[in-house]
Design brief:
About 55% of the residues lie in helices and about 10% in strands. By secondary structure, the chain is α+β, with helices and mostly antiparallel strands.
Length: about 600
């Protein structure tokens, strides 16, 4: 889908790149500039520079760059057209031109049928909860202190004891037994197919869009060996590893609240809802997967991790900490040593105020880990104790206040058994490896990248430098573009040449160069195979030294001389290499020596 140039320009004039990027990741202000931890490589420090004036971004480590549209496209892994629409959603902008020639994606009829089938079943379950037979489920909910409003909010239901009734209802609605089997609730019996959830309280599980995709069904009677919960199997519409309970509700409120609680089960989500917290999801007894992390990361809010207080729950939290660290997600953890109950139990036994206190007892990862090693997993081997020191030393190295630093060091010494002074010396060594600021408005990067802006500038030949300087001038004004077209005509470097062609084409259409719009032009070209290299080069040039208008005429002439000289050298070198082909070694050496002497003589002049 091709968007009108004027429309894209209007969207960009409304979409501040700092605000849009801030809706995905944390952005910090450094003087007149903005920086962020780059999401496009394994970054742990703010190596991405965001240029508010030119509406571009550029990473000084991985060199990834672009504009507002390319950031959204790369971050969400979506097409350019979808990224444009997503930016419009973020800035609350709409225009009829966004929907012209819109290609409607074909709907997978079989999948839509399953969605329709399971939605009808949910309605049947909600009806079942209101029947006389459903009294057992309603009584259970009252016992668990769930209100009618919550029951409606979370679409709770009840499956009638006669499991054939649900099957008959769906068949009457036009769904086949195959459809019913494919949503994961059909139980084959000799007497016929029945609902596997029969006689149970129903918790619908919905996807990120609020579409029901599965169920968890709780047993309400005792006296048999049936499992307490029956959960939907993996189906075409349900993947447990890609689903977080209550995400469709939490994603709406989390942006406003600035946090997201990650809990263990449904009842914990209900408990937090009771005390007015909607920004909570449950992992439903599974690990926090890569898909879960991607869903959470999109919200760009602080994660508040709260699993059960027993040893398995705390072990699971330690595992999730590593996952969140790797993903670069900011988080804290609910930690109250000695409290083994989950949020639901605290609410039922102690009331709302105690739950509020508990859920707001938040600690940083370091404090949580120290508590874990003290109470649940005392460190044994020397190797494990060393690993803990090595893991937390960088954290301690960043602590500013002496009191806080000493407190952490003593706690670490207590759980590892190492001497306090030995830990302090080690941390000091870690601290020393960091470089000083190399620019007053941008903080230093950690020794992980051994970062110095000068170290990351590419080593360029005179020819490459001259070509790049001309490109920088071409991004400033049309006169430089005309100079290139009249005198230089082509660059020797393929990427430089491609970018120059884009600049020429843009100026021919729109008269004046516009770096941000040229990025958009490249991003929107579906036939361009070298998009990211071109955009990375362009943002590198934008973020480098830009010549003043007064300097440009002289710079262009000087660069032209360098390019002509270097082209001549390349031509001469090619001819020399051809000339020595087939010659004996002595003659080859003589011709090469002559060539080197001529080159040195020219340099001396």
């Amino acid at each position: 889908m091709v968007f009108d140039h004027d429309l894209l320009q209007e969207i960009k004039s409304r979409a501040d790149i700092v605000d849009v990027i801030s809706s995905y990741i944390n952005v910090i202000k450094k003087g007149r500039r903005y920086a962020a931890v780059c999401p496009f490589h394994d970054d742990h420090n703010p190596s991405m520079d965001i240029n508010k004036e030119k509406q571009t971004y550029h990473c000084y480590v991985c060199h990834h760059g672009g504009d507002v549209f390319s950031f959204v496209a790369d971050y969400e892994k979506i097409s350019f057209a979808d990224a444009v629409k997503r930016v419009c959603e973020i800035i609350n902008f709409d225009d009829p031109r966004l929907h012209q020639h819109e290609v409607v994606k074909p709907v997978d009829v079989s999948i839509q049928t399953l969605y329709n089938c399971i939605s009808e079943l949910q309605k049947f379950y909600e009806y079942g909860l209101q029947t006389e037979e459903g009294t057992i489920a309603r009584d259970y909910l009252k016992k668990r202190q769930l209100s009618d409003e919550q029951s409606s909010k979370f679409s709770l239901g009840y499956s009638l004891n006669d499991g054939k009734l649900a099957i008959a209802y769906l068949q009457k609605k036009g769904f086949s037994l195959k459809n019913i089997e494919d949503i994961g609730i059909a139980l084959a019996r000799t007497s016929g197919t029945a609902d596997s959830n029969a006689g149970r309280l129903i918790f619908p599980i919905k996807d990120a869009n609020g579409q029901v995709v599965a169920f968890s069904a709780r047993k309400l009677t005792s006296g048999d060996d049936a499992p307490k919960y029956v959960n939907s199997p993996t189906t075409k519409i349900f993947k447990k590893e890609a689903t977080l309970y209550n995400y469709h509700i939490a994603k709406q409120s989390a942006k406003h609240d600035g946090y997201l609680y990650v809990l263990e089960g449904f009842m914990d989500v209900f408990a937090l809802d009771t005390i007015g917290i909607s920004s909570a999801v449950a992992i439903m007894g599974t690990k926090l997967t890569e898909q879960h992390v991607n869903m959470i990361k999109r919200l760009n809010v602080e994660v508040r991790l709260c699993l059960d207080g027993d040893k398995p729950g705390q072990e699971a939290m330690m595992g999730i900490m590593a996952t969140l660290d790797k993903a670069g997600i900011s988080y804290r953890l609910v930690c109250k040593p000695g409290e083994l109950r989950d949020p639901d139990e605290i609410l039922k036994q102690d009331g709302e105020d105690k739950l509020k206190v508990y859920i707001n007892t938040l600690v940083d990862p370091f404090t949580f880990a120290i508590n874990y090693y003290q109470n649940y997993a005392p460190l044994g081997s020397m190797e494990n104790r060393k690993k803990v020191i090595q893991h937390f030393a960088p954290v301690l190295a960043n602590i500013k206040t002496k009191l806080e630093f000493d407190d952490y060091v003593y706690k670490l010494a207590e759980v590892t058994g190492f001497n306090v002074n030995a830990i302090k010396d080690y941390v000091e060594e870690v601290r020393k490896t960091k470089k000083d600021d190399v620019r007053e408005d941008f903080e230093a990067f950690s020794s992980r990248y051994n970062y110095d802006r000068r170290e990351f500038k590419e080593t360029l030949t005179r020819l490459m430098k001259a070509e790049r300087m001309i490109l920088a001038c071409m991004l400033n004004n049309k006169e430089a573009v005309e100079f290139y077209e009249k005198y230089i005509k082509y660059f020797t470097n393929d990427t430089h040449r491609q970018l120059a062609n884009y600049l020429s084409e843009y100026c021919a259409k729109y008269n004046e160069p516009n770096a941000s719009m040229i990025i958009t032009m490249i991003s929107s070209n579906d036939e361009e195979n070298n998009k990211q290299s071109l955009i990375d080069l362009l943002t590198t040039i934008i973020d480098g030294e830009s010549p003043s208008v007064e300097q440009e005429e002289e710079i262009l002439k000087d660069c032209y001389k360098v390019i002509e000289s270097e082209k001549a050298k390349t031509f001469e070198k090619t001819n020399v290499m051809k000339a020595i082909e087939g010659k004996d070694p002595k003659e080859q050496a003589r011709l090469l020596n002559d060539y080197i002497k001529r080159t040195n003589d020219k340099r001396a002049k």
